[in-house]
Design brief:
This protein has 5 helices and 4 strands; from the N terminus they run H-H-H-E-E-H-E-E-H. The chain has about 250 residues and is mostly helical.
Length: about 250
């Protein structure tokens, strides 16, 4: 294998690592957004439960105020009833007082219902507060981990870029230019290995003579199908050599 092709293979490996790290860095904000959205859902749940409990408490206060108002009305009616001149006036006051007492009983019954309803509402609020506190803690921890991971990935990318620059400096400009051109047009992959008589990236079978030329490794060759720079690693064992031969003959 030509030294420049060997360097191009290493360069591809470095570029793959850089791409994987960049992808991870890009994915981390999306992950944080997802868990923050979940946290927003828990916040809305808590707000809803608190609103329900507050509405229950407001209604109870309103009814207590209504009861006080009816009691004040009863006191006033009883005072006026003492000055009644006729039986009809007296009975009219009694009727009004009876109506007020009926209203009070209705309000008291509703207050008892609201008190019964308030217990599970209060439990819902406490449960939602607990869940929100736990999720907030988890989100903050994950955000810190994401920041640390991003910093580590960025540091590693800088190291890989330095390695990339070193390798490129050792390669001929022609091979570098060809590698970069192909990589740009082939989704970041400019080099492919010939495995079992096929291009490992596009999976097309290589012509027998073409494969023989590639095995000599005396010049840069590209896949006739996808255009990527091809390289060939000789098998290291008899079993691998036999398998490769059968694959080409098949």
């Amino acid at each position: 294998m030509l030294p420049d092709i060997q360097r191009a293979v290493g360069l591809q490996h470095t570029d793959d690592q850089i791409a994987a790290l960049a992808k991870e860095i890009a994915a981390l904000p999306r992950h944080i957004a997802e868990i923050e959205n979940k946290l927003e859902g828990s916040k809305r749940k808590l707000e809803h439960d608190r609103a329900a409990l507050a509405a229950n408490q407001r209604e109870r206060k309103r009814l207590e105020s209504e009861i006080q108002s009816q009691n004040d009305k009863i006191s006033k009616l009883k005072s006026q009833m003492m000055d009644a001149k006729t039986n009809e006036q007296y009975r009219a006051f009694q009727h009004e007082i009876g109506f007020c007492e009926t209203e009070i009983r209705k309000f008291e019954d509703r207050i008892l219902e609201l008190m019964t309803e308030s217990e599970p509402l209060d439990q819902n609020v406490k449960a939602a507060e607990k869940i929100l506190a736990e999720e907030s803690k988890k989100v903050e921890a994950e955000k810190n981990q994401a920041r640390e991971r991003t910093a580590a990935d960025q540091k590693e990318i800088e190291k890989l870029k330095q390695e990339r620059a070193r390798v490129i400096a050792e390669m001929s400009p022609k091979v570098v230019s060809e590698y970069e051109r192909i990589r740009k047009n082939r989704r970041g992959v400019g080099v492919a290995e010939a495995v079992n008589g096929r291009c490992s990236k596009c999976n097309m079978i290589l012509r027998l003579q073409y494969l023989q030329d590639l095995k000599r490794g005396d010049r840069m060759m590209t896949c006739e199908s996808c255009g990527r720079i091809l390289y060939y690693n000789p098998p290291e064992s008899f079993e691998e050599l036999t398998a490769a031969t059968h694959a080409v003959q098949g």
